TrEMBL record:
Organism the protein comes from: Tieghemiomyces parasiticus
Electron transfer flavoprotein alpha/beta-subunit N-terminal domain sequence ranges: 26-223
Biological process according to GO: amino acid catabolic process; fatty acid beta-oxidation using acyl-CoA dehydrogenase
Keywords recorded for this protein, A-Z: Electron transport, Mitochondrion, Transport
Function per UniProt: The electron transfer flavoprotein serves as a specific electron acceptor for several dehydrogenases, including five acyl-CoA dehydrogenases, glutaryl-CoA and sarcosine dehydrogenase. It transfers the electrons to the main mitochondrial respiratory chain via ETF-ubiquinone oxidoreductase (ETF dehydrogenase).
The organism's taxonomic lineage, starting at the top: Eukaryota, Fungi, Fungi incertae sedis, Zoopagomycota, Kickxellomycotina
Protein name, as recorded: Probable electron transfer flavoprotein subunit beta
Superkingdom as given in the UniProt entry: Eukaryota
GO cellular component: mitochondrial matrix
Subunit structure: Heterodimer of an alpha and a beta subunit.
């Protein structure tokens, strides 16, 4: 293999700086009138795809033939895809889903599988999780459906020749380094890179880059939710701490008031 075709996931989520509130019906978080942006881990995925192309230009890896950004969600997801195009993706695919349907990880993995079979990429890069549901499952499910190797929570990625890569991944005990053949699925962690800001000229160019629209039905994918959310509530407010004068007093409060000993 002398060239790469990279498929990158770009989910539209409530912006990380927004203070989340539960909606009146306690069915989900409030999204009406709330700022949205690209999932931060997906920004890292797009950035890494662009950097791989830049490295190839310096003879530091296989040539990147094309970067395809994909988002599954409501019509406004196209704004997220335009951001990815401004960052350096070549074209985008929007799988449009009614905003009343909550896409679950398995459904998204199936949609990506159908797109992989259609577009024939040899590398899929996804964020390790989305900050709205924190499921952290889509990449792993996609690898399982495709029967491809996976390297999750990547904090460093380097190619070994044209058909293999070495990935350092973050684990509880530190770093674990994997070597894998392509095609493969990689999910990105925070320390992999720092995403660039899209420049104004690139934002203008992104408006002219191709953005294709399709539906789950066109991909023959069932997106019917398999898990039902019964209720969403805010966590209880934390109580203020208390100072104690001695270890004995601490033990007394832990045994009596707190009831934890």
């Amino acid at each position: 293999m002398s060239s790469l075709r990279i498929l990158v996931g770009c989910k539209r989520v409530v912006d990380y700086a927004v203070k989340i509130r539960v909606n009146a019906g306690q069915t989900a978080v409030e999204t009406a009138g709330v700022k949205h942006s690209m999932n931060p881990f997906d920004e890292i995925a797009v950035e890494e795809a662009v950097r791989l192309r830049e490295k190839a230009a310096k003879d530091a890896g296989p040539k990147v033939e094309e970067i395809i950004a994909v988002s599954c969600g409501p019509a406004k997801s196209q704004e997220t895809l335009r951001t990815a195009l401004a960052m350096g993706a070549d074209r985008a695919i929007h799988v449009e889903v009614d905003d009343k349907i909550a896409l679950q990880p398995l459904a998204v993995a199936k949609l990506f599988k159908a797109l992989v079979e259609k577009e024939k990429p040899n590398l899929v890069i996804l964020g390790k999780q989305a900050i709205d549901d924190d499921a952290g499952q889509t990449g792993e499910m996609l690898a399982g459906l495709l029967q491809w190797p996976q390297a999750t929570f990547a904090s460093r990625l380097n190619f070994e020749g044209d058909n293999a890569m070495k990935v350092a991944r973050e684990i509880d005990g530190g770093l674990e380094t994997l070597s894998t053949q392509l095609p493969a699925v990689v999910t990105t962690d925070l320390r992999l890179n720092e995403p660039r800001y899209a420049s104004l000229p690139n934002i203008m160019k992104a408006k002219k880059k191709p953005l294709a629209k399709m539906t789950p039905a066109e991909l023959s994918v069932d997106i019917e939710p398999r898990i039902e959310t019964l209720k969403v509530t805010e966590p209880p407010k934390r109580q203020g701490g208390k100072k104690v004068e001695s270890v004995d007093e601490l033990l007394e409060k832990l045994k009596g008031e707190a009831g934890v000993l």
